[in-house]
Write a structure and sequence with these properties.
Length: 317
């Protein structure tokens, strides 16, 4: 009996050891893939024409759909849950197109220059952002990972808005450095969440009447609230609503989407009328739900242009 128990324990231990090893290998492979994908995009910026590079990014995105089975399955599962009325054929096609879109987006970010941005990006509603800044308290620009959100930030700077984005560090570090450098090249400052001096820089933005861009459509380890998103409760960053209440800064909402000819149209609206009851907890929850619903509407209009592979519903109440 004892011998059998010991043998079972050894088998269980070996099984877990093997699973851990497989997990480590998979994570290493995914990291290497991201590193080489970003290197390919960066290298292409030196000699590949813009439109050819975008098509190349789409091709790599297509193959990525098949090379990353875990992300592919998660994308299909999320789309199925969000669009239960759709046929499986539509789900699979939209999942594949979302990978193609992201592949294009990475290369667009690497290849973009101020002159190219003028030719491929059309901005609407910049008067909303100007109206927000006229209040003299800074402005919070809220968006999600829809369309090419990085180009939207670049376009904001091109239209004269001093813009910083707060973002979590991306792993692997090489990919993070590339994105931060590309933002800086286009005039966008990056505040690394939890980084040295991040809190002081946030306060400075509002004092100096600048724009802070915040993306609130991912389940990350930050202060947040559960709100409805695509029919399910999702843990959502509350920073935008919280800072609007704390600093009195107005919020504008924006999003961008890709057109059939791989150009981009961005829209900004606001300043938004936020709920202000005097109860901060209720106001943060209500306004975060409002902003999330606006993001959801944008996603439903262009579902193939959102990051469905992200574990958006990782936590549940």
């Amino acid at each position: 009996m004892n011998s059998l128990t010991s043998s079972s324990k050894i088998r269980i231990s070996c099984t877990y050891s093997m699973k851990e090893r497989i997990t480590k290998i998979r994570k290493w492979a995914e990291f290497q893939f991201l590193i080489w994908f970003s290197r390919a995009a960066k290298l292409s910026s030196l000699f590949v024409p813009y439109h050819l590079g975008v098509r190349l990014g789409g091709i790599l995105g297509f193959f990525t759909y098949y090379l990353l089975p875990r992300e592919r399955k998660r994308t299909i599962a999320h789309l199925t849950a969000a669009f239960p009325e759709k046929e499986q054929r539509w789900i699979v096609r939209t999942a594949r197109r979302s990978f193609i879109h992201l592949g294009k987006a990475v290369f667009e970010i690497a290849l973009i220059t101020p002159r190219r941005l003028e030719n491929v990006f059309e901005m609407h509603g910049e008067e909303a952002a100007r109206a927000a800044l006229q209040q003299g308290k800074g402005a919070i620009y809220v968006t999600g990972h829809i369309g090419n959100w990085e180009l939207m930030a670049y376009s904001g700077v091109a239209h004269g808005f001093p813009l910083s984005v707060i973002a979590a560090p991306i792993r692997p570090q090489e990919v993070n450095d590339m994105i931060v450098d590309l933002r800086a090249r286009m005039g966008v400052k990056t505040i690394v969440r939890g980084g040295t001096g991040a809190a002081r820089e946030l306060i400075r933005i509002f004092k100096e009447n600048r724009v802070l861009a915040v993306l609130i459509d991912q389940d990350t380890d930050v202060e947040g609230v559960f709100v409805d998103f695509m029919g399910r409760q999702a843990w959502t960053p509350a920073a935008a609503a919280s800072m609007a209440i704390k600093f009195g800064a107005p919020i504008v909402f924006g999003h961008t989407y890709r057109t059939k000819d791989n150009k981009h149209i961005g829209n900004i609206e606001g300043p938004l009328d936020l709920v202000r009851t005097g109860n901060d907890e209720i106001d943060i929850l209500t306004n975060t739900a409002l902003l999330t619903k606006m993001i959801e509407n944008c996603i439903r209009n262009n579902p193939e242009q959102w990051v469905w592979m992200h574990r958006r519903w990782r936590r549940q109440p």
